[in-house]
Each structure stands twice: as C-alpha cells, then as structure tokens.
Amino acid sequence: MKIYDYILCSGSGNRFLLFDTLRSDLSGLNIAAFAAEELHRFGVDGLLLLTRDGRGRFGMRMFNTDGSEAEMCGNGIRCVARLARERYPEATGERFAVTSGGREYRITCEEPIFGALPTFGAEIPLSLHGDDFPPSLPAEEFVGQPVPELDEGPAFTFLQPGNPHIVALVAPDSAWLFGSDGQLDTRRLAELGERANRMRGVFPRGINVSLFCRLDEGRIFAATYERGVGITSSCGTAMTSCATAAALLGLAGFDTTVEVWNRGGRVRCLPRRTQQGIVTRLTGDASFETAGRLRLDGKECIATGDASPLDPPCDRLRLTEETLRELHEKYGLTIADDHD
User: Fold this and answer.
1) Which of 32, 139, 188, 197 could cross-link to 67 by cystine, CB 3.0-4.6 Å?
2) How far apart are CA 106 and CA 101, in angstroms?
C-alpha cells in the first residue's frame, strides 16, 4: 500500500490536486496514468507537483486530466508558489522564482484582491510567435486575424505564455459565448477547441482556445477550452493571454490593469511592454481547500482517502458567488450552476 499526502487547491475556481515532492516520494507513482485515471474522482482540472532542482530553484509540473503534461499553468503556479512560501520560507521570501516548462517565472506575494484569500502575482512573458506557431500562418505577430482552417468567424490572436493559445474577442450578444437569453453557452467554444486540437497540421502540439468579451472599461469575461482537459471554469494562462490580446487590440492599454472575470471568479492582469518583450503580471488567489492522504493499492487505484479542511470556504465561495451575481445584475449575463 502506497500513501501520498496531497492538497486540494484552487486558483480562480481552477481546481487541482497538489503534491509536494520534497516531502513525498512519488518515484513509484505513474503520475500521467494517475492523472488520466483517477483525477475525475476529485472533480479537479489537473494535478500539480512542487519540485526543487539541484540549484535550489522551486519548480512546478502540471498534468492535465488526459495524462498529458502542460508547460505552464497560470492558476496552478500561484498554488505551487503558496506551498513553497509556507513550507520553505527561508528559501523564498516576498519575491522568488518558480520554474515550469523550462522557463522561470517571477513570483510576488500580493495584498488580497478579494476577502482574505492568499494572493500571489506571477510575471508571465508572452511571445507572439514560437515553435508552437501554426506553420501555415505568418510567423510574426498574428494579432486579430481569422484562421480560415479553423473558422471563418472570430479573429484570433496567437500568444505563447509558456503554452500555446489562440484567443478571440467577441461581442457579448454575438452568440459565440452568451445566447440571446444572456445564458453562457460554451458549445461553440467546445467545438472550436475540439476541432483545433484535431488539426495537428495547423497546431502541431495542440492549442488552448479562448473567447473573451468586453464587460466595461478595464474588465473582460473569458472562457477557455483547455488542451488536454476541455472546457474549464478558469485558465490562468488563457486569462493572461486574453488581457494581453485586449491591449494589443486597443481594447485596453498597456501598463493598465485589466480585470478578467470567469466562471470561477476573477483575477487582475497587467500587460506591459518591456525591453525583453511583452510581460503580463497575473494576480489572483491561491486557495487551499483540503489536505488529504491517498492510499493506493498495487494497481494504483484509490483504496481509501482522508481529507480535512484548510482555508475557510467563505471567501473562496463568495468570490465565485459574487462574481456570478454581479455578472447577472450588472451585465444581464447568466452562468448555470452546472457549468454546461
């Protein structure tokens, strides 16, 4: 019988199982298979690992629910950063770095943006081209253009915040996101995402697909089809990409905070042009819901599991509830409880 300690955590409604490899030896666990076969039991969007290399740098590994490994996760890296900060304060401080997918991301401890939820910022460099860029499309700065192979309708912007994204600005009443009744409908987004991830001649390693709309000055709503997962309540790199695309398209200014709402809550993004290129700071909560222990049998199936609460749920649940209520009362837009 193998025993592993975990934390069930979330960032802006994006939920994960988090393992600390500095304290738990996972060498005997087929992590990819576990993610694909067992995560559905927990109702989470992925699996996170806190790691540390020979140079003492903290790192993150993230696995999707299909067992594939993602290069970066904007919501997940805040949760990993919180665990590193709380368990290893002598090696972190108010500013430190976490690596993921071969990149280093600067992390800052931030004042809470909602209630008392622990909050972290991640400086995310974004490229407008790269190895993941569709070979059939222009190789530089694909901003606000159609991808005919995918769909003639939306105008997409390609961004690489560590993993590949295409995002498109749509009108709230265009039926791409919200129906005529103002009800969120992600079926067309799901169709776009599924189609894009079958088009490996266009998107060689798959692609994350997002649609976003303007709510008012400095505020947008985003929904995402995540490669390897499907429709999720929230995606940190997608919200970062949408806020950056809003700046590139002139919907918001660089050096101006964009508040990004989603089905799980909200974050703040600050796109900036620097000498090194575009860097967007993603700031949001890192919530720890429960601490648990898994006991796995010889076939790596969950035999028993224990869990105990960590953060009080009040602020985390209120963040989601208030976001959804304001979305309806202020903008006439509604999201069903079942997140269909």
Assistant:
1) 32
2) 14
